[in-house]
Each structure stands twice: as C-alpha cells, then as structure tokens.
C-alpha cells in the first residue's frame, strides 16, 4: 500500500479528552526501522497527534529498554501512549513502568512476554514460519564488532522477508523495507524480560490474522493473558503498513481512553 494512502485522518473512536492529546511513541521491531511506521505516523499527525518514532537499537532487551526509557525521559512531556510492533512489544513492556507519564500500551503483531520469558521462547512455542530446521534458509548471519562469544546479527533473507514477513505488502515497498532492515542480535531474542508493564497499564492489541511470523493463535494467547482490548485485521506481520488506518484507529482509541498515572 503506498504510504500516501494513509494520510486521511481516521475517525475518532471515542469522545476526545478535553486535555491535550498524549504523545504517541512508536517502537519498531526486528528486521525493520522507523520508516515501517510511516503510514501510521502520517495518519496520526493528520489527526493532530505529536508522534515520535525513535530507533530501536536491537542489541538486547535490557539495552533496548534502557534506550527507550532514556528517550522518554528526555524527549517527551506529558501523557504518552507507547506502541510496539513485533519485538518492539517486548521493549515497551520492559520499559514502560520507568516513566510515570506512560498511560497506555498498544501492541501490533507484537511479543508480550511475562517476566522471565524471552521472545525466542515465545517463537519456539508457536507455529511461526521462522521455526525451521535450518535457520540459514531464512536468516543471514553477520558477525559484529565486540560481540559476546557466539553472538551474531540476524537479517531476514530477501525471500523470507517478502513471503513471510511482508506477504501482503506491495513488492516495491517490501523490497525497500527489506533492503533497509535493521538486524537483531541473537542474544536479544534469548534475553528474558524483567518487567511486564501490561500487568499494570491498560493495553490494546492489533492481531494480524495472516501473520506467518507470529501466528494469530499465539498473538491471541498473549493478548488474552495481558487482558488487552483486541482488534483483528486481515494482515501479515506488517499490519501497520498493510492496514495503517485500522492500526491508527486502535491507537486513537487507546489515546482517548487512557488516563495518566501521575
């Protein structure tokens, strides 16, 4: 779907607050970068929201969460809605309670680990298309400087990116996203969560029913555990690109419904 198609403002899904609109912080996941949020960013900005899309380092859950925490403390003022895609869901869950201004969580095809649980464990316990006997059929592994022993950066191979990760996205966009993907370290996928903000904060979950990376059943399992308000969309793992207005509508609902903790 061309990015410009998402510029129309979505309808307000509940009565707007009389106070200032919260800042929306969008956090990308593995094998993506901040540009993966462009359609949603455009729609939210058109609707009058301040939107921030910081980079996610993808170096390790504790490292990535600390980066997000520092970003929130220095770059935001007032209520915040945190939105995480894929691995970004684990990051927002781990970081959210460090900032009392975070009022709500939105998960988009996202991992929602409990304390002590890792993204890798969640994938291993699912029917993900990334669960293959030979990981080199879907991943390219690259050594990075000063890596811990045995750690590598993992990239999705072009065929896996197009057919598994972004199966319903227009091919020119898919190829561009695949070329600009950020790798994630193998150690990040195995690092357990130390916080589960969804136990404290209200949450919403957008389930991609055609997701091959994080299957629908596993998404629903995590959303149910988190007591999230669920919206299902017919989309691949990149729901925010395939169905940007649906995703934007859920974020607007969260923004209108959540109350600051301060």
From TrEMBL:
<dbReference type="InterPro" id="IPR052897">
    <property type="entry name" value="Sec-Metab_Biosynth_Hydrolase"/>
</dbReference>
<feature type="domain" description="AB hydrolase-1">
    <location>
        <begin position="24"/>
        <end position="246"/>
    </location>
</feature>
<dbReference type="Pfam" id="PF12697">
    <property type="entry name" value="Abhydrolase_6"/>
</dbReference>
<protein>
    <submittedName>
        <fullName>Alpha/beta hydrolase</fullName>
    </submittedName>
</protein>
<dbReference type="InterPro" id="IPR029058">
    <property type="entry name" value="AB_hydrolase_fold"/>
</dbReference>
<dbReference type="GO" id="GO:0016787">
    <property type="term" value="F:hydrolase activity"/>
</dbReference>
<keyword id="KW-0378">Hydrolase</keyword>
<dbReference type="InterPro" id="IPR000073">
    <property type="entry name" value="AB_hydrolase_1"/>
</dbReference>
């Amino acid at each position: 779907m061309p990015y410009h198609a998402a510029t129309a403002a979505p309808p307000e899904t509940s009565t707007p607050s009389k106070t200032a609109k919260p800042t929306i912080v969008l956090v990308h996941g593995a094998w993506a970068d901040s540009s993966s949020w462009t359609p949603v960013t455009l729609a939210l900005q058109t609707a009058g929201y301040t939107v921030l899309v910081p980079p996610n380092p993808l170096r390790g859950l504790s490292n990535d969460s600390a980066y997000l925490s520092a970003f929130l403390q220095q770059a935001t003022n007032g209520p915040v809605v945190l939105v995480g895609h894929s691995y970004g869901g684990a990051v927002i869950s781990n970081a959210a309670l460090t900032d009392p201004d975070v009022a709500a969580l939105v998960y988009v095809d996202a991992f929602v680990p409990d304390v002590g649980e890792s993204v890798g464990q969640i994938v291993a316990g699912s029917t993900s298309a990334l669960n293959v006997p030979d990981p080199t059929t879907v991943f390219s592994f690259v050594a990075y400087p000063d890596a811990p022993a045995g750690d590598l950066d993992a990239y999705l191979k072009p065929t896996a990116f197009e057919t598994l990760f972004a199966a319903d996205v227009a091919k020119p966009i898919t190829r561009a996203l695949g070329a600009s993907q950020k790798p994630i370290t193998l150690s990040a996928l195995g690092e357990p969560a130390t916080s589960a903000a969804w136990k404290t904060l209200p949450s919403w979950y957008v389930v991609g029913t055609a997701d091959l990376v994080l299957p629908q059943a596993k998404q629903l399992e995590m959303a149910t555990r988190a007591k999230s308000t669920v919206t299902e969309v017919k989309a691949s793992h990149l729901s925010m690109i395939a169905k940007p207005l649906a995703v934007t509508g859920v974020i607007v609902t969260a923004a209108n419904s959540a109350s600051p903790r301060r």
